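Quick check before the chapter quiz. The format below is the same one you will see on the exam, so make sure you can read both the input and the output lines.
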Amino acid sequence: MTQVSKCQPRSPRQAARRRAAVDRLLDTTLFKALSDQTRATLLACLIKCGRPCSVSELAECCSVDFSVVARHLSVLARAGAVEANKQGRTVWYSARCAHLCETLHALAEAIEDWCPQLEARESSDSCPCEDHGGGND
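Here is the expected output.
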């Protein structure tokens, strides 16, 4: 877990200026990809299946056209949620479970680092950071 300064910025402006792991881990490409119900269903099917699946196999778990499933899988692949491997004329898709777990665990830890409700924080009076009159973060 990455350690960060234990003090909270006093304003949203100060928070925006402070760079932390949570900024990097809140990957909008991944979250946009997961925000569509069909893509979420496709990813869940791949995760539960536990093996690579073709577009035609995955089309059976959704009520959308084959070409739409292929486009959704491309979005998931660009976001890093699935991996595509072409063998002959067939593209096999598999969930990148280890990558997803690593990313989401790291995000959860980064959020925990900044949430005062989850961990006791030092008072701002004893905080050494620049935002509260102390030294550098």
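If your answer matched, good. The domain at 21-114 is CATH 1.10.10.10 (Arc Repressor Mutant, subunit A).
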